[in-house]
Write a structure and sequence with these properties.
single chain; alpha/beta; 10 helices; 37% helix
Length: 355
């Protein structure tokens, strides 16, 4: 028996240890679901690797901080300190200019980019249009509130904070809100499709830049990990999101001002609609442009030396359509700025900062 034990121990020592890839996430149900979905895909692609998920817990009370930006910074610190190798985010939470040393190494296939309305149980079966006069609708987004105030002037839009679980609990348990607006993709990922009472299409409410897509953030010079996650790029989602992020970056927009987009690829054309609003929705400016684009399957010419566009590295996707998408965003932003969009954005930013 002792001989067998020694043989087993020797065999164990001779077996090469699996490489461990450490994945950072934050301790929320949705963040964990999103991270698990990306890790499951990577495990299927790389059965010889081991993936370890590390939750990041913060001591600071979320009510005292801008939770998205703080969590993003904390996870970037973990990347910088080499505590994790990659981090999964909702792409809409990532700024169009990342700190030096970081890049988005993958943009995963987009789920629904639209916004969804969840109604209080007593208003199930209603729509925003048929809600009673002065009904209160909760949203944490200036973009949603500005567009919907303009479209549904009989409603009152009020700020609601917290993660998805918290917001749904506030809707159901408090009598304050008749409905709340959330991203349809988040509700789908949580398995709460049955709570969706209405989907808001672009003619009612255009969506946030990158909404519905997941981005995988990595160290910009970590070529091994870039190669590892690069296979997750969905070419159509990538090109749409490059155009959207380029539009936002050139406008110098962000969470503090109402900016929204809608993109589509059809018959070799990438269409980008973008708009800006005043905080109360009274002033708006929007337009649509398109460019010829061929959705690539994989890169055919080898890697590029200058990888990043709007914070995204996609060396395995042809450069030409990426540049066309970026230029489309710049062109549309320039068009709106030339028409006077800067005044609307400046006033919206000043008013928001004053509150």
């Amino acid at each position: 028996m002792s001989g067998n034990g020694n043989a087993a121990a020797t065999a164990e020592e001779d077996t090469p240890k699996m490489r461990v890839i450490r994945v950072g996430t934050r301790k929320s149900q949705l963040a964990r679901i999103q991270t698990d979905s990306v890790v499951a895909t990577l495990k299927a692609l790389y059965p010889g690797l081991q993936f370890e998920i590390r939750d990041k817990i913060l001591d600071t009370a979320l009510s005292k901080i801008g939770e998205k930006s703080l969590f993003t910074k904390e996870l970037e610190h973990a990347l910088e300190r080499n505590e994790v190798d990659l981090v999964v985010h909702s792409l809409k939470d990532l700024p169009t200019v990342l700190p030096p040393g970081f890049t988005i190494g993958a943009v995963c296939k987009r789920e629904s980019p639209y916004d969804a309305v969840v109604f209080h149980p007593k208003f199930v079966g209603k729509t925003l249009e048929t809600l009673p006069e002065k009904s209160v609708v909760g949203t944490s987004s200036l973009r949603r509130a500005a567009q919907l105030q303009r479209k549904f002037p009989h409603l009152e839009f009020r700020n609601i904070r917290g993660n998805l679980n918290t917001r749904l609990r506030k809707l159901d348990e408090l009598q304050e809100f008749s409905a709340i607006i959330l991203a349809a993709a988040g509700l789908q990922r949580m398995g709460w499709q049955n709570r969706v009472g209405q989907i808001l299409h672009p003619e009612e409410c255009m969506y946030a830049v990158g909404q519905g897509a997941l981005g995988v953030e990595v160290r910009a010079k970590d070529q091994d990990i870039l190669d590892l996650v690069g296979v997750l790029h969905d070419p159509e989602t990538l090109l749409r999101c490059i155009a959207e992020r380029s539009f936002l970056r050139h406008l110098e927009g962000g969470c503090s001002v109402p900016v929204a987009v809608h993109t589509a690829i059809k018959d070799g054309q990438l269409y980008l609609t973008g708009g800006v609003w005043s905080l109360n929705g009274a002033e708006t400016m929007q337009d649509t442009m398109q460019t010829t684009i061929h959705v690539p399957v994989q890169h055919e010419d080898g890697p590029e030396d200058d990888p990043q566009l709007v914070g995204i590295t996609a060396r395995n996707i042809p450069r030409q359509p990426q540049l066309a998408a970026e230029n489309l965003g710049i062109s549309l932003a320039t068009l709106l700025l030339n028409k006077g969009a800067k005044n609307i954005l400046d006033v919206a930013r000043q008013l928001n900062e004053a509150h």
